[in-house]
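User: Modeling request: complex.
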Amino acid sequence: MKIKKISVLVLTLSLALSALAGCSSEPTETTSGDDRPAEVEILNVSYDPTRELYVAFNEAFAKYWKETTGQEVVVTQSHAGSGKQANAVIEGNEADVVTLALEGDVDAIRKAGLINDGWVDRLPLKSSPYTSTIVFLVRKGNPKNIKDWDDIVKSGVEVITPSPKTSGGAKWNFLAAWAFAQNLYNGDDAKITQFVKDLYANVTVLDSGARGSTTTFVENKQGDVLLAWENEAFLSQKEHPGEYEIVTPSISILAQPSVSVVDTNADKHGTREVSEAYLQYLYTEEAQRIEGTWFYRPSNETILKEFSDIFDLNVKLVNIDDDFGGWDAANTKFFVDGAVFDQIYKQ
Amino acid sequence: MSLLTFTRGEICAMNIVTTKLRRFAPRRKAHVIPGFGLSVGVTITLISLIVVIPLLSVLVALSGISWREFWGIVTDKMVLHAYQVSFVCSLIAAVVNCVFGLLLAWVLTRYKFPGRRILDGLIELPFALPTAVAGIALTTIYADQGWIGKIFAPLGIKISYTQVGITIALIFIGIPFVVRSVQPVLEKLDSQYEEAAQMLGASRVRTFFKVLMPELLPALLTGFGLAFSRGLGEYGSVVFIAGNIPYKTQIAPLLIMGKLEQFSYAGATSIALVMIVIAFILLFSINFIQSHMNKAAKNN
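Assistant: Request completed. Predicted assembly structure:
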């Protein structure tokens, strides 16, 4: 009797162990470049506001790819907060390409060993085919008369912006405000910090992501001003015509979303060729126009000028490398635990 | 008399039959699910794969940091405040759910009225609904321009983006736990007891607290424990309604997400570990109290 019991236990345990062992081995497949299968599928892991852009872009790319190679390409899109998406790829979401909000998020995937060193320089303009900036979305008629950053730190103005702790995009918002104050106070750190502190004291809802903030401002009618990606602001305006106005401040930041092939995954899936072509296609004139149509600023200067009636091209744009010493320096100074952003909330 | 007398032969035959029958009788107590070894084996394997190993991996993720760092993270003022928000809101929500859930279960089991089955089916909806959908819907309704928020706004009461809002979201997701724990007990509880109590002259209040409550309390405690611990960990619905302002409406799970976003796995797991330990102690003590109550009930 006892022997039977033990043997049953041993059997179940060994079954469990073999099930565990089974998880670790994964099939790998490779296909050579020339004899392409009739259809190929790639996964583009992106951040929140690019959903509509990539729907349009994927269609254009699929057409181009079919014409040049005869191969059908199906691009699956995935959207969420940029940092969350980077984490997901690191944890095993098998993205062939990533198109994220921050260079730092793509670099985190490199640090995990999935993207090769030097990815930033593999594509033109530091792998950022389109840019955006941070603008203000205000209610119709601009009742609080908001023109620039110093208007939103005034008492009585309610500001909606996501938290830079949970949203990569929100780091741009913070840095844009910082850049304005830096210019205003000639680099006096104490005064700049106070300015940003006053700004965040006016924040009534600190959502966890950019889309969440837009919902709070647009659907739930909270606050007087939304600090938003320019493309997100235009999209809200388009969806609710006549209800919102966009105010471009005197100084903002050049938000440079980064794109890269995830080398390990693309090689494993045998999709390197199509993945690379996919990202390169973002720089073509046709794609640049699509990006402009979806309110991203095309990196191609000539095409950007075609959209000068939409974008305020007079805004002074600072950028992360020249004005903040790159993402590593900016994160250390502002966003890691205990840094400036935590300090301004300390009571 | 004659019916009870047997001949020798008859008795002998009966003896043979009974010994034969005995041979077929089970040697030990029969169980519905066969094989103690097999069922325990499967149980342990499943619990290991699904509960224990993932929880232990929390400890593995923590191995990179020292005790001092761990202590620094979990006693940070912002983190302590987030714990406080999470615990207070979950506690209030669980208490409200106990009162409200008991009433709901009572109505559903004791009265027959049109639409009762539909109401009964609605109870589980908070489980089925994706929490983000619930969060967004609740936020919109309770925002100062929303259907319900509009009523409270002139009184100076803000619901969405305050701790009240967080509590409401937690009540929403916790209510099925209480109702479904109490309901079966109420169904089994014969109304004869209440009638007997009344016949013996007990007041309604006395009947409720002395006759019904002792029977219901263990189930109510289970519901409380489930609702409370679910509330502690809830993220999806709360982030939308919370407003997430540090030191005001930031919940602990949000801090965990924030740390993950910064690729600070050790930081995230430190906060998580404290929550797991507290939740475990809490559930364990509820189980302990419950088994005591059950014993006491049996002895009476």
